[in-house]
Amino acid sequence: MNYDDVIRHIGEGLESARKTLGTLTGKDVEVTSVKRSEMSLSEVPFLAGAPDSVVLASYIRFSGDCRGQILILYRPDNAKDLARALAPEFCAELKEEETEDLLESVVSEVSNILGSAALNAIADGTESTLRPSPPCIVRDMAGAILEAALVSGTVLSEKVPVVDVRMKLGQTDAGAEMIFLPE
Fold first, then answer.
1. How many other CB atoms are there within 10 angstroms of residue 67's CB atom?
2. Number of structural domains, the chain?
3. Which residues pair with 103 in a beta bridge?
4. What is the domain range of residue 33?
5. Which of 12, 92, 132, 141 could tie 121 with a disulfide, CB 3.0–4.6 Å?
6. Helix (H) / strand (E) containing 117
């Protein structure tokens, strides 16, 4: 699997995800930035900032012609912005300490849409079959999450495709980092 093609297909999948999010929420969703790159495995633990920074992460395992996982990282401020933009009526009524469940639910749903769209685009573009699992949400230090993802499977290369996604939902900007980890 050529990583340049994988990264290009992930970008195509994000356009599909944008349309889906807009349709489901009735919100104007715009993908404002997609930065695609390959990153050394040794750099991955620093992707979301300092390794001891707390992040929300979504693991989406996949199987089929290729096995592995997509890891989507959200810094806490990006997760809050995403939730406020997609569900402002719920966020307005919640106290700060009550938002954790809502954040995890929003991140799970958005990750399911982003990850599935990316995997579908990769599968279509490479004429392969990839079956995603439901996302698993984890809140922990970035370094611990990324290290766990890297040791959970055998990664094929010293470099892995990374996509930094920025979306605008109305007046709100939100972002996530997506890491493709084939086994």
1. 15
2. 1
3. none
4. 3-182
5. 12
6. helix 100-126
Give me the residues of the chain with pLDDT under 50, please.
Answer: none
* Longest CA span, the chain: 47
pTM beyond 0.85: no
The pLDDT assigned to 65 comes to 92
Structure confidence at residue 130 (pLDDT): 93
Residue 68 backbone class (left: φ over 0; alpha: ψ -120 to 50; beta: rest): left
- Whether the Cβ atoms of residue 71 and residue 59 lie closer than 8 Å to each other: yes
Q: Which amino acid is at 6?
A: V
Query: Within 10 A of 55 (CB to CB), how many other CB atoms are there?
Result: 24
Tokens of 23: 């349709």
> What's the pLDDT tens digit per position in 114-130?
999 999 999 999 899 99
Contact 153, 68 (CB under 8 A): yes
149 three-class SS: helix
d(CA 150, CA 144): 10
For residue 67, give the CATH number of its domain. Answer: 3.40.1550.10
